[in-house]
Amino acid sequence: MFTYKYPRPALTVDCAIFCKIKSIYHILLIQRANPPFQKLWAFPGGFVDIDEDIDAAAYRELKEETGFEGLALCQFKTYGKPDRDPRGRTVSVVYYAILESENLPIVKGEDDALKADWIPLNHLPELAFDHQKILSDLLDYLQF
Amino acid sequence: MFTYKYPRPALTVDCAIFCKIKSIYHILLIQRANPPFQKLWAFPGGFVDIDEDIDAAAYRELKEETGFEGLALCQFKTYGKPDRDPRGRTVSVVYYAILESENLPIVKGEDDALKADWIPLNHLPELAFDHQKILSDLLDYLQF
User: Fold this and answer.
1) Domain at A10-142, CATH from 3.90.79.10, 3.40.50.1100, 3.40.50.1820, 3.30.70.330
2) A144 has a pLDDT exceeding 90
3) What was the pLDDT predicted at A142?
4) Contact, A93 vs A13, CB < 8 A?
5) Contact A135, A16 (CB under 8 A)
6) What residues of chain A lie within 8 A of the CB of B91, using their CB?
7) Mutation test of the interface with chain B: which of A11, A51, A79, choosing the one with the most B Cβ atoms within 10 A?
8) A96 φ/ψ angles, rounded to the nearest 5 degrees
9) SS3 state at B20
């Protein structure tokens, strides 16, 4: 157990990976294996280790949950509204990447993910946490 | 005291406020009252309260340490290298704002700041933490 004089938020990373196939954008989502929002779809992501750079955490979580790697991630924005995670205060640094491809790269849900899949932006399921808001902000920013 | 199953970083905000006077950019810095980096200059900023939105923390810390308020802050980037704070793992969300003015707004070092002052970018002192790196990144981004 770890004890501090003042309360501290948990720190996570989330990765929004877009793939454009014949003018249609897809996003890489995972189906959550665990509560909260169990079985809902979400960005691949998870908790930053205490001795791990936040960029490195993003690459690690993306690989662990989807098998996907080899793409440079850009930091987008940090989301920290106090009520965004029912487990308690959690602040998430969001990363993104965009690739264009002939085919959707093969991905596989592993670790905390039941499944991983590329979902066309016009067929989005309900998303966990504030990931719908994050995605909307990203789409505005990227002008997709 | 607050106890968690896994170690957690501390979360801070930092504010880089620029003021352009007759084509010369100045940055609002504070002289630190407390260790680490006591008496060195730094961005106004500080710890996010556990029930406080990170945006709100940025506005609060800026006002507490410099008296300055009334300007919309934009989120820039989050800095989280494990060794960036000698007190232990601390992740900082950096905000910025730019104003143009006839005169430098009056500011006053308060709370954790011995002094607050507008410093021309060509007369920068040594900065605390990784604030020199943050400032360099911001100047690249803003193309000043």
Assistant:
1) 3.90.79.10
2) no
3) 96
4) yes
5) yes
6) 11, 54, 91, 93
7) A11
8) -145, 160
9) strand
